[in-house]
Write a structure and sequence with these properties.
The complex is a heterodimer of chains A (350) and B (138). Chain A is 32% helix and 25% strand. Chain A is of the alpha/beta class. Chain A has one domain (1-338): Thiolase/Chalcone synthase (Peroxisomal Thiolase, Chain A, domain 1, 3-Layer(aba) Sandwich), CATH 3.40.47. The longest helix of chain A is centred in the middle third of the chain and has 20 residues, at 203-222. Chain A is globular and about 55 Å long. Chain B has a domain at 54-132: Beta Barrel (OB fold (Dihydrolipoamide Acetyltransferase, E2P)). In chain B, the strands form 2 sheets. In chain B, strands 6-5-4-7-8 form a 5-stranded antiparallel sheet. Chain B has a 3-stranded antiparallel sheet with strand order 2-1-3. Chain B is globular and about 45 Å long. The N and C termini of chain B lie far apart (43 Å). The chains are: A alpha/beta (350), B mainly beta (138). The structure holds zinc ion (ZN). The site of zinc ion has 8 residues of chain B, from loops.
Chain lengths: 350, 138
């Protein structure tokens, strides 16, 4: 059975902070930092936003674009490393908020930044086996870097929801492939507010090794080369890594243009590839082939080979805001307001 | 802790703006109620649930500088009475904008946000707030 994306929705918070403002506070050259990372501003969630509210807004934008009865959704999986509750699934609230409750299965997924794509693969299996009509996979995060840490320049917030089904598919998923190893490049222990990382170790043996291995494995399985694709999107912890990995494998700058959103909004972690994919679907044309590789620390990569179908010409894209529209109209914060919004200030009460 | 069940019972209406329509007088109400405040007994058996679209116009608004404790870190914040397109007026916080951006009559729509949390170990309450409807080209 053919399975693929039936609808999608994105959400990016409106607030932004620039690297020069972060650098001003910590005595670092923020402009140079931003240039090095290729991040010129990052999104910041409002004080009343979290992974659940971001997931709900993304899921509602996904529902707006189709006339699907929410009761036909058989599963909702939310992938994130910033679930607001340690115990109580984010997906339960998303399901209620799109009126898919109570006859469905819900679980929260975790695999650093690739939990959202792991959810897409799970939904592909459930739909492909005929167990359900639609499955919803969400990747969303409101990630934090420790104050002053290099991660603080990139860790941002956002998410996207993808509805997987077998009818009226706008992007058919032709192949998927994953590559997973035990690699301690980035982690967060239970109860710790901020993650720890292996510094330079996060580059070659982690991000690059897994993305390249996954990309090669996927193209071998699909029998394709980089020239076969109209668009390519890679996990984007900063602008530099995906640009370098794309070039290394023979993808052009033009192929990566639509999916590269990190320079404007920062690293949305589990939201990164789902959002990049949403930005591509915002503008993709029938017949366009899409190459997508997510990466999650720990470590693993999920890859997808997709083809945009004719269905996209009648798909109601304009019923919800595009990623580009959400990236526009930002409201910039100073560091003090940002610290207050993100709960980085210790309050003298409860 | 004690407020969790009370909030929980209202979740469907607070997440999805489910109110009622009285088929005796044709008026819509939010939050939902068992009988129509206009028709009283005549409305019995004529009340049906209605999902509001969540769009409307600012009827009146105020900037709050000395608010309730749980919103202390948010002040000043905006509270508005919004006339929904289906008729009822409901009150809620307006976010993602400043007071100077807001006018009576301005179009707003609902989004889901955190309303409050019962301390760092307690339940988080979610519900609707309003955001301005922006022109796509803005
Ligand atoms: Zn009545």
């Amino acid at each position: 059975m053919e399975v693929g994306i039936v609808s999608y929705g994105a959400y990016v918070p409106r607030y932004r902070i620039k690297p020069e403002e972060i650098g001003r506070v910590w005595g670092t050259d923020g402009i140079a930092m931003g240039k090095g990372l290729m991040i010129f501003s990052k999104s910041v969630p409002g004080p009343d936003e979290d992974t659940i509210t971001i997931s709900v807004e993304a899921a509602r934008n996904m529902m707006r674009r189709v006339d699907v009865d929410p009761k036909d959704i058989g599963a909702i999986y939310v992938g994130s490393e910033s679930h607001p509750y340690a115990v109580k699934p984010s997906g339960t609230i998303v399901a209620e908020a799109i009126e898919a409750s109570p006859e469905l299965t819900v679980a929260d997924f975790e695999f650093a930044c690739k939990a959202g794509t792991a959810a897409i693969q799970t939904c592909m299996g459930l739909v492909g086996s005929g167990m359900m009509k639609y499955g919803v996979a969400i990747g969303a995060d409101t990630s934090q870097g420790a104050p002053g840490d290099a991660l603080e320049y990139s860790a941002s917030a956002g998410g996207a929801a993808h509805m997987i089904g077998a009818e009226k598919i706008i992007a058919r998923i032709d192949h998927t492939y994953s590559y997973t190893t035990d690699t301690p490049d980035f982690w967060r222990r239970e109860g710790q507010m901020y993650p720890s990382h292996g510094g330079r170790f996060t580059g070659e043996p982690a991000y690059f090794k897994h993305i390249v291995s996954c990309a090669r494995g996927l193209m071998k399985k699909a029998g394709t080369t980089p020239d076969d694709y109209a668009h390519a999107v890679f996990h984007q912890p900063n602008g530099k890594f995906p640009t370098r990995v794309a070039k290394q494998m023979g993808f052009t700058e033009a192929q990566g243009k639509l999916g590269l959103i990190v320079p404007h909004i920062g690293n949305t972690y589990s939201g990164a590839v789902p959002l990049g994919l949403a930005a591509i679907l915002d503008e993709a044309k029938p017949g366009d082939r899409i190459f997508a590789i997510a990466y999650g620390s720990g470590a693993g990569s999920d890859g997808f080979d997709m083809t945009v179908t004719d269905e996209i010409s009648t798909f109601k894209r304009d019923r919800a805001p595009t990623v580009k529209e959400q990236i526009a109209n930002p409201k910039y914060l100073d560091y003090a307001t940002y610290a207050k919004f993100r709960g980085k200030i210790t309050l003298g009460r409860g | 802790m004690a407020t969790a069940p009370r909030f929980w019972r209202q979740n469907p209406s607070r997440y999805n703006l489910i109110g009622i329509k009285c088929n005796s007088c044709g008026k819509n109400y939010f939050p939902p109620r068992a009988i129509c405040p206009v028709c009283h007994r005549k409305s019995v058996g004529k009340i049906e649930p209605l999902k509001f679209k969540g769009e409307g116009a600012i009827f009146s608004f105020s900037e709050v500088h000395e608010g309730i404790d749980e919103k202390a870190t948010l002040k000043p914040y905006l509270v508005a009475m919004v006339e929904l397109d289906e008729g009822p007026k409901i009150t809620g916080q307006v976010i993602d904008c400043d007071a100077c951006d807001l006018k009576i009559g301005a179009r707003v729509r609902t989004v889901l946000r955190k309303l409050s949390e019962e301390g760092s170990a307690g339940v988080i309450h979610y519900g609707y707030k309003f955001v301005p409807v922006r022109d796509k080209k803005e």
